[in-house]
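Exercise: predict the fold of this chain.
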Amino acid sequence: MKFIYNINGIIYSITLLLYLTIILGMYMQIVLGIFQVLFFLILLFNYDKFSEKIKSHLTIYGVLTGVYLLWFFSGFYPKDDWMLLLITLVPMSIGTYFTYIVYKVNQKVL
């Protein structure tokens, strides 16, 4: 779990730093999302070991990520300023939530 915590923290920090250039941050956000979904799947293999609160957080994250990915790959995109919000702020919010979950898992394990 510490490995997931450290790697997620590094990738999340790099993403935030690259958002100073906007475009590079958006590209890095894709990398962050891929890693976080993979880490989520790894955490699901250990689902029974977690407290009910962590299980609840993981379920919420899974639903949020699933809904967002379904929307993203559906092809239904607004043609106005909302699009920028939907492709940057929403996934970073979900990524921040996952970072919080990994932090809580790391606290419980150590």
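Check your answer against the key: The mean pLDDT is 92.
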